[in-house]
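Tokens for chain A. Residues wanted.
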């Protein structure tokens, strides 16, 4: 068997393997990315809210 043919077979085998496990691999990654994104948005929103609150408190104390 020539090495090119072997490599092609290996590649096709690997791609089949990856695609069969695709949903198992991708789902947790995507969910963790979504969680991270939501967390950063929450942090930004809470930061903005705290700034507004501190601004109001600062204005009312003057």
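Reply:
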């Amino acid at each position: 068997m020539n090495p090119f043919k072997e490599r092609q077979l290996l590649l096709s085998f690997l791609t089949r393997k990856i695609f069969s496990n695709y949903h198992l691999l991708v789902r947790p990654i995507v969910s963790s990315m979504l969680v991270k994104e939501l967390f950063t948005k929450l942090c930004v929103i809470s930061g903005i809210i705290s700034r507004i609150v501190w601004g109001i408190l600062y204005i009312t104390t003057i």
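The radius of gyration is 26 Å. DSSP finds two helices and no strands in the chain.
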